[in-house]
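Postdoc handover notes: sequence design on the structure in folder B. Input tokens:
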């Protein structure tokens, strides 16, 4: 990390010089540029997004911008059907905070050499970087957490039943019954799963009161096959 004259902090990835992009590097395919920058991002500890591109009159890519996922402006519809090609990962906008990072890589097509040249590269980020090995660690720890909880709560979930699911916009509304050991329905709760912000709110208010996920919301998570419990429901 170093401080710029303006007093803002800049984090520069520490990576092997041979994987660090350089202005003036040439690539024969724009996909190779993407692979290179993605690999660099993996090692450096940031995610890349494909920003704008310009096509030339022959239908080839003329310029291509790659940015850090924490780059500034909210995305326009850059992932409309025209833009999505095989190699492009879709954004999961719930998991990213955009804070105006300026790190980027830009290439343009040089006709004379029929290749793509890196003509602009900003190395520094305005946020801390999370290297992939550290990311793996946090991810695996969380998954472990999730498995533990899952086993523990799977049993409990047997006592809950999904009676009804209603889809309202981005929300899935579940009616969940709470049964006792003799399978008698003791109560019915409403769990609202907001797909967009991955929230699960149960009318029993158990989470709000105790900070522990209730069986009803958990039942819905199992039902909707979430890959992991959203972070906000995992206590430190
Ligand atoms: Zn960044
Ligand atoms: Zn509940």
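Designed sequence:
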């Amino acid at each position: 990390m170093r401080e710029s004259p303006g007093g803002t902090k800049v984090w520069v990835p520490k990576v092997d010089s041979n994987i660090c992009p350089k202005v003036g590097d040439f690539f024969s395919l724009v996909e190779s540029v993407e692979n290179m920058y993605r690999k660099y991002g993996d090692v450096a500890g940031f995610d890349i997004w494909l920003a704008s591109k310009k096509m030339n009159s022959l239908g080839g890519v003329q310029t291509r911008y790659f940015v850090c996922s924490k780059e500034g402006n909210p995305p326009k519809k850059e992932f409309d059907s025209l833009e999505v090609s095989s190699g492009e990962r879709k954004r999961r906008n719930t998991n990213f905070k955009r804070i105006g990072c300026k790190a980027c890589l830009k290439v343009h097509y040089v006709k004379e050499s029929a290749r793509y040249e890196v003509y602009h590269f900003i190395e520094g980020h305005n946020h801390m970087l999370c290297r992939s090995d550290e990311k793996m660690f946090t991810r695996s720890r969380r998954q472990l957490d999730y498995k533990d909880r899952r086993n523990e709560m799977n049993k409990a979930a047997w006592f809950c039943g999904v009676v009804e699911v209603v889809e309202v916009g981005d929300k899935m509304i579940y009616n969940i019954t709470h049964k006792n050991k003799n399978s008698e329905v003791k109560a019915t709760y409403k769990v609202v799963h907001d797909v967009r912000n991955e929230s699960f709110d149960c009318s029993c208010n158990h989470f709000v009161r105790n900070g522990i996920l209730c069986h009803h919301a958990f039942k819905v998570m199992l039902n909707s096959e979430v890959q992991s419990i959203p972070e906000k429901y995992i206590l430190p």
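Context for whoever picks this up: Residues 46, 68, 70, 101, 103, 125, 127 surround zinc ion (ligand 1) (CB under 6 Å). Don't rerun without checking with the PI first.
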